[in-house]
Every structure is written in structure tokens, then in C-alpha cells.
């Protein structure tokens, strides 16, 4: 009935879910003990005792669900506390929490622009940004990856009412960083232009106190909207928008993924609030240092083994080429007890299938050595 599935199988692009035990570095995947090096649990907080305690306490005090949209009866104290903490982390006036990072991107873009407007999107932006652009009805322009000159070219040809430039800061499959300063120069010169960035893979990991790329580069005043997720370095679940008061009011009224969704659970909100406090303190700094050491060890050893390894951040894509080659490499790693599935089209462009290595602060040096050896053996 669904010929698309047969086509996927023939091209080596068929996807299936693995049965994992938890998000810890040492876990069980499909019944086998494995070292997990593919999660976004960058600081290891998803299994941190402080966050587990915060979850238990919140569940006892507020229950396990918000019960309704936050515009009905689901606007709870943990939401308000979390939004205050996120605004402080991001150095913005305020913040608004969504049920996921995907919902935050889709809802925000569609609220900010419509068919009278234009949106300019990096060619390697996340699917949630792409979908938000499509749903908005705006005139969508895709500029070459991380190319501010190409953006400026297509931007100046538009006479739209509003012009929204949107980009990831750390790109999830390439591990590189957007040229935010140059992008901000484009919008800051235009009273009808504004810049929105997705800090999903940077929040908690990059910059002083984990503020992200925007904070690290001192661009808070040049970026109009910061999107983030609670489900990666912060070890919880949900998404958020950090912005000014007027933008928040617009989203509360116009972002359909906020208006028509039950509020984030109070448990997730409380856990995320605790995570923000942790990443901004001394322990957060120590975890970022541990993560950096693991990343550098892997980067050097995998490159020495002859692989093409890219990325300027904690995300290390090992590009092997075709989908079949990527599947074979993943199987070789799995036989050494290292779990890192193949990333294939359409997630990445044809001919660039890869193993996306994502070490965490919770991995030990011995774990990092084990991953390096697995790649060396696979090579």
C-alpha cells in the first residue's frame, strides 16, 4: 500500500526505532549493553540526581500534568519560575515556554510573519524551522549555508512588510556555528528586519554560564528572538522563546502551538528550572570542561584514523559518504559496543551520510578511549 516504504528500503533509508533503557552513557540498546555516543544529553543532566529530586518534589506538589492550555487553567507557578530563570540566562526581558523546541519554532515563525512578509532561512536549518517557514505563508528565501554575503544579496531584493532572518546557531548535523555578527549586520540596518536564532544545541554548553552563542559573542542586543530547547543540555523536556515583552504578548495571542497545547508539565518545568541553576554554577562550568576534553580526544583520534571529521563544537560529524557505507560503519561500531546510528538523507544531503558523534560530560576518559578505539578498528 505504501510504496514509499519500499523505496526507502531499496535506498538504505528505512528507519526503525531502537529500544533504549535510558539516556545514560552506559545503557542497553535493543537488549545489548552499549556505550551511547549519539544523544543530545550533552552535560549528562538527564540522569542527574539533582534533577531527579526536583522532578519528584514537583510531582508531589503540583501533580504530573498542567491539565489545560496555559490560557485556560494550565499556567502554573513552575512555568513562571522557569521563564524568569530562562530570561535571566539569556539576558532578555522575558521568556515563554512551549511543549517542545519543535513547537516553539513552528509557532513562533508562523506568528511573526505571514503572507505579507518574507523569511530568510539558512539552507541547513533544522526541520522545525523549515516547517515553521512553510506554515507561515511568508515568501521563503533559502540562503547558502552560513553565507552572510548571499543572505544580503537575496535580502535586499525583497520589499516585504517584515523580513525575518532565521538560523540555527550550532547546526545539529554539521557541528559548525552560524556567523551571527554578519547576519545581525543585515537586519540591524533595516527597521523592517529582525533576526531569530535557534540555540537548541548551544544553550547550556556554549558561552559564559551556558548562555549560548549569542551570549558568547556579546550579541544579545542584536538578536531579536532566541529559541531554545529544554531537552538537550538541560536534560528535561520542552522548548522556549527568549525575547522582549511585546514579542511574548504576540506569541501568547498568535502562536498556535502555544495557544492550543496543554501547558508543559510542572515536573518538566521544575526540572528545567533546576537545570538552569546548575549550568550557571560551578558544577556547570566543570561539566563543560569535561565535555570539551572528551570532544578533543575523539576529534584527534578519529581524524588520525583517516576519517573525515568535521564540526567546531561538541557535535562531531564523521562523514563517510553513501547511506550503505554509513550503515556498515554503524554496524562495525555496534560490534565494539558503541552505539551511534547512521545519519542518512533526508536528514543530511545525499552523499554525506555520517556517524554523528556526540560525547557528553558524563562520559569518562575511558569511555572516550573506547569510542576512539572502535573507530580505529572500524577503519
Describe the 3D structure.
- With 379 residues, the protein is an alpha/beta fold.
- It has two domains: 3-36 and 282-378, Aspartate Aminotransferase, domain 1 (Alpha-Beta Complex); 49-279, Type I PLP-dependent aspartate aminotransferase-like (Major domain) (Aspartate Aminotransferase, domain 2, 3-Layer(aba) Sandwich), CATH 3.40.640.
- It has 14 helices and 14 strands.
- The strands form three sheets. A seven-stranded mixed sheet has the order 3-9-8-7-6-4-5, with helices on both faces. The protein has a four-stranded antiparallel sheet with strand order 10-11-14-13, covered by helices on one side.
- It is globular and about 55 Å long.
Write the layout of secondary structure elements.
Blueprint: H1 3-10, E1 26-29, E2 32-36, H2 49-62, H3 77-90, E3 94-98, H4 101-112, E4 118-122, H5 127-136, E5 139-143, H6 148-156, E6 163-168, H7 180-188, E7 193-198, H8 213-216, E8 225-229, E9 239-243, H9 245-254, H10 256-259, H11 266-279, H12 282-304, E10 308-309, E11 316-321, H13 323-335, E12 338-339, E13 342-343, E14 353-357, H14 365-378
Parallel strand pairs: 2-12, 4-5, 4-6, 6-7, 7-8
Antiparallel strand pairs: 1-2, 3-9, 8-9, 10-11, 11-14, 13-14
Helix pairs in contact: 2-11, 3-11, 4-5, 4-9, 12-14
Q: CATH top level of the largest domain?
A: Alpha Beta
Principal-axis shape: globular
Mean pLDDT: 95
Q: Which blocks of ≥5 consecutive residues have pLDDT under 50? A: none
What does the oligomeric state look like here? Answer: single chain
Radius of gyration: 21 Å
What fraction strand?
Answer: 15-25%
Q: Main β-sheet, in a few words?
A: 7 strands, mixed
Amino acid at each position: 500500500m505504501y510504496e514509499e516504504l519500499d523505496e526507502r528500503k531499496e535506498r538504505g533509508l528505512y528507519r526503525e526505532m531502537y529500544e533504549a533503557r535510558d539516556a545514560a552513557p552506559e545503557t542497553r540498546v535493543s537488549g545489548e549493553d552499549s556505550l551511547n555516543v549519539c544523544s543530545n544529553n550533552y552535560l549528562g543532566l538527564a540522569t542527574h540526581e539533582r534533577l531527579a529530586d526536583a522532578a519528584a518534589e514537583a510531582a508531589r506538589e503540583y501533580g504530573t500534568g498542567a491539565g489545560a492550555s496555559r490560557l485556560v487553567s494550565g499556567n502554573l507557578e513552575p512555568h513562571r519560575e522557569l521563564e524568569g530563570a530562562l530570561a535571566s540566562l539569556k539576558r532578555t526581558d522575558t521568556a515563554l515556554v512551549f511543549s517542545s523546541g519543535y513547537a516553539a519554532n513552528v509557532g513562533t515563525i508562523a506568528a511573526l510573519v505571514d503572507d505579507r512578509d518574507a523569511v530568510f532561512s539558512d539552507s541547513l536549518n533544522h526541520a522545525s524551522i523549515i516547517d515553521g517557514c512553510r506554515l507561515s505563508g511568508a515568501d521563503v528565501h533559502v540562503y547558502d549555508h552560513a553565507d552572510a554575503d548571499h543572505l544580503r544579496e537575496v535580502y535586499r531584493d525583497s520589499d516585504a512588510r517584515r523580513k525575518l532572518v532565521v538560523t540555527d546557531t550550532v547546526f545539529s548535523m554539521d557541528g559548525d556555528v552560524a556567523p551571527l555578527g554578519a547576519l545581525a549586520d543585515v537586519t540591524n540596518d533595516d527597521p523592517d528586519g529582525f533576526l531569530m536564532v535557534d540555540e537548541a544545541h548551544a544553550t547550556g554548553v556554549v558561552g559564559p554560564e551556558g548562555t549560548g552563542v549569542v551570549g558568547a559573542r556579546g550579541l544579545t542586543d542584536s538578536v531579536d528572538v532566541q529559541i531554545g530547547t529544554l531537552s538537550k543540555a538541560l536534560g528535561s523536556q520542552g522548548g522556549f522563546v527568549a525575547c522582549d515583552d511585546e514579542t511574548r504578548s504576540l506569541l501568547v495571542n498568535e502562536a498556535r502551538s502555544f495557544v492550543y497545547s496543554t501547558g508543559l508539565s510542572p515536573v518538566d518545568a521544575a526540572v528545567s528550572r533546576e537545570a538552569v541553576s546548575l549550568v550557571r554554577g560551578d558544577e556547570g562550568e566543570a561539566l563543560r570542561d569535561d565535555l570539551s576534553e572528551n570532544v578533543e580526544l575523539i576529534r584527534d583520534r578519529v581524524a588520525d584514523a583517516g576519517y573525515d571529521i568535521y564540526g567546531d563544537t561538541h557535535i562531531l560529524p564523521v562523514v563517510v559518504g553513501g547511506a550503505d557505507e554509513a550503515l556498515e560503519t554503524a554496524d562495525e561500531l555496534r560490534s565494539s559496543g558503541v552505539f551511534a546510528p547512521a545519519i542518512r538523507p533526508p536528514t543530511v544531503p545525499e552523499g554525506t551520510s555520517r556517524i554523528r558523534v556526540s560525547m557528553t560530560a558524563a562520559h569518562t576518559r575511558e569511555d572516550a578511549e573506547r569510542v576512539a578505539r572502535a573507530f580505529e578498528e572500524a577503519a
